[in-house]
Amino acid sequence: MISCKNYPTFVGSEFVEFMVKEIETPVGKVSTSQEELKRLILFNDDVNTFEFVIDSLIEVCEHNPMQAENCAMIAHFKGKCPVMSGSFKDLEPYHNALSKRQLTVEIS
Fold first, then answer.
1. Which of 25, 37, 42, 86 has a CB 3.0–4.6 Å from the CB of 90, allowing a cystine?
2. For residues 25 and 36, what is the distance between their CA atoms, to the nearest angstrom?
3. Long-range contacts (CB closer than 8 Å, 24 or more residues apart) made by 9-18
4. CATH of the domain at 88
5. Is 44 domain-assigned?
């Protein structure tokens, strides 16, 4: 099952601190129905505008505006941000859709 909105709702810097810990925490061997949980990672680039990245996360990943803005800011300042989690098979369509929009993403 895809977990788009599996991160708690925070206000301002609380969310940033939470996401920084998420980025720095190694992914353990978590399994869902014998399938390894993966993350869709958004990387910072010097090409796309914040507005475009935010709109893409809202449209493709169904993030709310605050979540999308926070993910864009984290990717900008930390270099990357996990935006979704789930199985590889579930994340692949989101990866493809964001890639078609010229965003740099990876499933890991």
1. 86
2. 16
3. 9/66, 9/67, 15/70, 16/70, 16/73, 16/74
4. 3.30.1390.10
5. yes
At 12 the pLDDT is 55
Residue 65: partners with Cβ closer than 8 Å, 6 or more residues away: 54, 58
Least confident of 11-15, 74-78, 79-83, 87-91: 11-15
**Residue 90 forms part of a structural domain:** yes
Tell me the pTM. Answer: 0.70
The gap between the terminal CA atoms of the chain, to the nearest Å, is 16
According to DSSP, the residues that pair with 85 across neighbouring strands are 3, 39
Percent of the chain with pLDDT over 70: 68
Q: Identify the domain containing residue 31 by its residue range.
A: 13-107
The residue written with tokens 């979704």 in the block is 84
CA atoms within 13 A on the CB side of 77: 10
Banded model confidence at residue 103, pLDDT cuts 50, 70, 90: very high
Task: List the structure tokens of 18.
Answer: 């939470």
Considering the domain boundaries, does residue 96 fall inside one? Answer: yes
